[in-house]
Amino acid sequence: NAGVTQTPKFQVLKTGQSMTLQCAQDMNHNSMYWYRQDPGMGLRLIYYSASEGTTDKGEVPNGYNVSRLNKREFSLRLESAAPSQTSVYFCASSRGTVATNEKLFFGSGTQLSVL
Amino acid sequence: RKEVEQDPGPFNVPEGATVAFNCTYSNSASQSFFWYRQDCRKEPKLLMSVYSSGNEDGRFTAQLNRASQYISLLIRDSKLSDSATYLCVVMGYSSASKIIFGSGTRLSIRP
Questions:
Q1: Distance between CA atoms of B106 and B26, rounded to whole angstroms?
Q2: Is the pLDDT score of B8 beyond 60?
Q3: In angstroms, what separates the C-alpha of A83 from chain B's closest C-alpha?
Q4: Which of B40, B97, B99 is most worth mutating to test chain A (most A CB atoms within 10 A of its CB)?
Q5: Which residues does B10 contact at the CB level (< 8 Å), separation at least 6?
Q6: Residues of B in contact with A104 (CB under 8 A)
Q7: How far apart are CA A62 and CA B101, in angstroms?
Q8: Any chain A CB within 8 A of the CB of B103?
Q9: CB atoms within 10 A of CB A98
Q10: What separation in angstroms does the CA of B14 have from each of B39, B45, B93, B106?
C-alpha cells in the first residue's frame, strides 16, 4: 500500500525560483494537509483541504499556494522561493473531515533548501 | 506561551528502563489527544490515541489529565528501537488549524 506519496524527496532552489511539491494519497481520504517542520518547532500547518474543491489557510500560509486537483492529489506551490522557506515539508491526509479529529497519515517528506 | 509544550530532552536512558514524559496544553477546549513517533529524518507516525480514562498498548501507557491540562506517555521495559522523537498532538474541534503539534521529546535508549 502506497499510502501518501510525496515528490520530490529533496530539492535545492535559488532565491526567487518557483516549484511545486506534489502529494497523492490512495486511501480515498477526504482531508489533506501541508505542514512544514523546522528544528526545535512542531509541525506547522501551511494549508489544508477538508474536501475536494476546498482549501483553507493554516498557521503559516504566506509565500505558498495550494491546489486540490482532485480527491487524491494536493499540491503545494512556492511562487518565489525565499531562504526562510528552507524546511522539511510533509503532506498528510485523514479519512474524515477535520471535524472528526481522526489520525493523520503522513508522506515521507521533502527536504527543501533555498539558497 | 506555546499552545502545546514538551520537554525537548534528550532523555537518555538504559535499555529496560521505564521512562515518562509529559506534554502540556493551554486550550482547555481541546478535544482529542495523540502521541506520534518520529524517527530521524522520517515522517511522524501515530503511536497511540489518548483517552480520558487512560489507555495502554503493550509497553506504552498514555494518560490525560484535563484538570491540569497535560497528557503523558510512559514507556516500560524500553528497547533500543524506542529511540525516536515523540510528538504530542492536541486537536480542537471542527478545524484543521486547531491540530497543534508539540515540538517533540527526543528519547535515546542506550545498550
A1: 22
A2: yes
A3: 20
A4: B99
A5: B106, B107, B108
A6: 44, 46, 99
A7: 20
A8: yes
A9: 24
A10: 18, 24, 39, 14
B9 contacts chain A (CB < 8 A): no
Q: Name the more confident of A99 and B6.
A: B6
Which residues, in sequence order, are bridge partners of residue A64?
Answer: A78
What are the b/e assignments for A12-27, b being 16+ CB within 10 Å?
Answer: ebeeeeeeebbbbbee
A35-45 per-position pLDDT tens digit: 999 987 789 99
Q: What angle do CA A10, B85, B29 make, to 5 degrees?
A: 105
pLDDT digits (tens, 9 = 90+) for B21-78: 999 999 888 888 999 999 998 999 999 999 888 899 999 999 999 999 999 999 999 9
* Interchain proximity B42–A50, CB inside 8 Å: no
Helix (H, G, I), strand (E, B) or coil at B45: strand
Asked if B20 has any chain A CB less than 8 Å from its own CB, the reply is no
Per-chain mean pLDDT for chain A: 92
Joined together, the cell numbers standing for residue A37 give 517542520
